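Journal club side-thread
Mid-discussion, someone asked how the predicted structure for our own chain would compare to the paper's figures. Pasting it here so we can look after the session.
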Amino acid sequence: MMGHQAEKLEELVSSNGAKKSKKTRFIAITSGKGGVGKSTISSNLAYSLSQRGLNVGIFDADIGLANLDVMFNVKIKKNILHVLKGEATVSDILIPITRNLILIPGESGDEILKYSDKALFERFMEEAQVLDKLDVMIIDTGAGIGEHIQMFLNAADDVIVVTVPDPAAITDAYATIKTIATLRDDVNMIMNQVKSEKEAVGVFEKIKKVALANIGGNLNLQLLGKINIDQRVSSAVKQRALFSVLYPSAQATKDIEVIIEKIISKLERNVLVKSAESGLSGLFKRLMDHF
């Protein structure tokens, strides 16, 4: 059945592949354990990218905790699984956060790929085209290294592992990097809740040294950026608001901006490809390819 779905998906996506040339860049943000600020970073990155005039989607794949609705202070009634079951349309579940930022309430990878109704699948792919204009889709995955999380990590253009300078978190982050290295060579890191750039680089270099010694191969582990520890970040979370909105002059917000610059430079180097790689349908195409 899954093979048939993948074939059907190929047909559906390639049938309108010549119409568009925009490519969505898929960025998966993950962590070795919960509580390191992954969803806080995902939501603030998505918002800041949208403020630069990019069309951004943020896909909540962390269904166990599903806290992006809290971050954006919105109520989620239905998610992507309702669409796949025929209980809602894609447009029904999309939640506009700003003019060019859309929250896509998701479901874990294994749940997403359990459906098997051909007609519903075709309809879903047709409806998903409303998101083909996205420049960036941020995928907020669950924590850890479960199989369904690996699917998203495999399908993404960029993988970012978030950790904090805490021994247990660093150990979990390393385990996550080790698993990702079986799927791909390139891994980015964001060091969260650090006191300084020096601390961020110091912790990162230790992780990198252990990773290169034990994983070796072609692993390309990069430090994408750091976010300083700041009480205003947790204050914003408690207020169900984004720290980059409430506290635009905070160091943490400036740190987000530095990371945004690096992401935008990658976008500018992006080559244009056919729309098989666009929006939500592009994400599903990749998930099917890697299943």
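Post-session note: The CA atoms of residues 193 and 229 lie 4 Å apart.
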